[in-house]
């Protein structure tokens, strides 16, 4: 039972991160980059990169397969 709860939590966390990433992408897409100060654009792109990196880590943890013991 404990493992099922952990798996559910991992899935919920992954879904939450995907939602955050989707929201960040939508936010960037709604703005005209030529109207943004360069520093603001860089800040938003760095945050998007961080969110994508967190998502990759969570996907890797979720899909990681242990090597067989030899």
How would you describe what is shown here?
- The radius of gyration is 17 Å and the shape is elongated.
- Helices cover 77% and strands 0% of the residues.
- It is mostly helical.
- The model has no long low-confidence stretch (mean pLDDT 77).
- The protein has one domain.
Number of strands: 0
Count of domain modules: 1
Structural class, from helix and strand content?
A: mainly alpha
Helix content: over 70%
How is the quaternary structure best described?
A: single chain
- Give unreliable regions as ranges: none
Query: How far apart, in Å, are the first and last alpha carbons?
Result: 29 Å
In N-to-C order, the SSE pattern is HH
The gross shape turns out to be elongated
Please give the radius of gyration in angstroms.
17 Å
Percent strand: under 5%
* Annotation field: number of helices: 2
* Major sheet description: none
Mean pLDDT equals 77
Helices, strands, pairings?
Elements: H1 2-29, H2 38-63
Helix pairs in contact: 1-2
Give a brief rundown of this model.
By secondary structure, this protein is mainly α. It is 77% helix and 0% strand.
Observed structural traits:
single chain; 70 residues; mainly alpha; 2 helices; 77% helix; elongated
